[in-house]
Amino acid sequence: MTAPTTTRPKAGRAQPSGLVPPRKPLITLKRREALAAWGFVLPALLGFLAFFVWPALSGLYYSFTDFDLLTAPEFIGLDNYTRLAADPLFWNAIGTTSYYVAINIGLQTVLALGIAVLMHRLTQSMVIRGIVMLPYLIANVIAALVWFYMFDFQFGIVNEVINAIGLDRVAFFGESDWAIPTVALINVWRHMGYTALLIFAGLQTIPKEVYEAGAIDGGSELRMFRSITLPLLRPVLAMVLVVTVTGSFQLFDTIAVTTQGGPVNSTRVINYYIFDMAFNRFDFGYGSAMALALFVLLAAFTFIQLRLTRANKSDLG
Questions:
Q1: Distance between CA 79 and CA 291 in Å, rounded?
Q2: What is the pLDDT of residues 128-182, one digit of tens each?
Q3: What is the CATH number of the domain that holds 151?
Q4: How many domains, in total, are found in the chain?
Q5: Residue 165 maps to a domain
């Protein structure tokens, strides 16, 4: 006679209890969140690949070719870059653009910083912020054309005022010495409010207690601006400088509707020279080489700016 055997349940297996065990969801919460994230990111990613990565890679390829749009591109190696190094118009365009950037960034940053500090210390009015922002809401081409007619040598209101006070009229867009400063002033007027609001947002992050402590110590407004505002605003100013310098190097539309590079190449900035070479002379290979050189120049300039301004470090403990 054999003894009855009992079967023990295996470890980890649930005993049947008569209740229906809960079913596992087909899609876990983590996977649902990942799908939702991809749903938001995918349109922007497709746009980035289609309108930035693909054109950039195409431009890199064309920069090594002789391509006139009518025939197939012919690979010519580094010939476009050799030509670029010996092209006086290219270096003139780089110099003209740098001159414009120096005037534009210098004036724009100082004025925007002054406006932002005044708004921060004197008023928080939304109406004032809206008024400051108004010029930025006007399209670049429209702003440039309005100022172009206001600065007109014969009929412009600015020259009428200059003539009325007994001074000689000025050919703001017709003289080489005046053309780039005039273009820079137009863009300073248009972008100053936007830059001021960026700096104003940075000022909002500085604790009021710091200013209160400075006031208790007897610090004047000027002393607190120099010892509190500027050091604590450094990371924001670094970001603003990177954005404005990069944007300034891309100057095109104001030049296209006012001077078209003249007089005597005095306003032929690098972006307008690239456009002229590619779309007027159909030299896409050489235009692509200049565009790539500009990209490398801006990347190096931005890297140096970020390192010098220590943009990733704040003095706010």
A1: 15
A2: 888 888 999 999 999 999 999 999 998 899 999 999 999 999 999 999 999 999 9
A3: 1.10.3720.10
A4: 1
A5: yes
